[in-house]
Amino acid sequence: MQLLPHLALVSLVSLVAAQDLGVPLSWRKFSNTRPIAERITIAQNAINQMTPQLNAATGEFNGIGYWQSGNVWSVLANQDHLAGTTTNKALVVNNLNLVFSRWAHYDQFGFNDDAMWWAQAALYGYRAYADTNLLAHAVDVWTHVTGYVITPAQASARKNPNKAFTLESTCGGATMAGGVFWQTSTSDQSVNSITTGLYITLSAFLAEYTKNATYTAAAIQSANWIKAHNINANDLVLDTVNAFDCSTSPASWLFTYNSGKYIEGLSVLAAVTGDTQWSTLAINILNAAVKTTAWEGADGIITEGVSTTSNNDGVGFKAIFIRGIHEAWTRNPSNTALRTLIHSYGDVQYNALLDLAATGSTYSSNWHGPPQAFTSWGQLAALDVLTSNIDTN
Ligand SMILES: *[C@@H]1O[C@H](CO)[C@@H](O)[C@H](O)[C@H]1NC(C)=O
């Protein structure tokens, strides 16, 4: 009878380890044979259709929001990073400096996620061009947003100095420490996954670039917040927890970018710490997220953020997801099954854009098509797929 608990434990462990990273055979066209030079050209041509929409006075793009504009700069920097070019360098550096000079901490509207989308762009710019001003912008935003991260002491005292209400110390039995407030307003109570996921990613990249353990500790503390509070039973990242009363966003609020940004942050954190619990968690979420019916059908093509006649926030989410799983691809070079899965999923989106949604080098936000005239938001959504496929194809 002594054996039973032992056996039960063994089978539980093997269940967890036996993650099936297989590619669903129902996916539409999960490979393609375009050579790398062609993939670089396809992605840069799409960028070249976006840049005429730049408003030179603001550093933002016509037709999309502030956070989405920050993400255009991200993909321009990543294009140069992956292609080994400097084609976009002057535009990226000059405009990230311009916007930083216009809005303290990149905070135009009192949203910490907005500030960090731009700080993230600055970090990708630093990665691509080694421009230390861009690194300094990211550190400035990190320091600013850190005032909105619930510390263990604040969770115990039930008080954050930037908030005018009493916090819950714990929600669902887990400490609220590590959660990051979405907005800077003293009354807003939301702690959400995208703001916390951005903070994890920023912290992990800063830890990698500066070797300063303060950033590593911050990334771990916030990674633990999402892990404890905001992952559903199907391994998808949920949206919001209210720090005043522990109420949550509806279970149906499932958005690609919440999982995508967390996957990105965990992938970098795993590399920085060497702690495989973070890569294992990232891989579990990734495997669920590329197969869920929440945002794709049996063909694998993402259906979230289809908006052909007007912009909305949701159009920009899938770009963040694709960028996040690209980081997982980069950080797990010897995990062949994972890399095949990311490659295949990326090619499904790539082939859909090129076969079904393209008008020349411009793309509809509906990746099933039909093609339509250029929109800034459709183009934004496509850019990360085209650039990521330089690597993952
Ligand atoms: C590490 O980073 C923190 C946060 O930005 C900063 O306060 C501290 O001075 C840094 N430490 C060193 C040795 O640079």
TrEMBL record:
The keyword Signal applies. Residues 1-18 form the signal peptide. GO terms for biological process: carbohydrate metabolic process. It comes from Mycena albidolilacea. This is Endo-1,6-alpha-mannosidase. The lineage of its organism: Eukaryota, Fungi, Dikarya, Basidiomycota, Agaricomycotina. The keyword Hydrolase does not apply. PANTHER family: MEIOTICALLY UP-REGULATED GENE 191 PROTEIN. Keywords: Signal. InterPro entries: 6-hairpin_glycosidase_sf, Glyco_hydro_76, MUG_Protein. SUPFAM superfamilies: Six-hairpin glycosidases. Coiled coil: none annotated. Pfam families: Glyco_hydro_76.
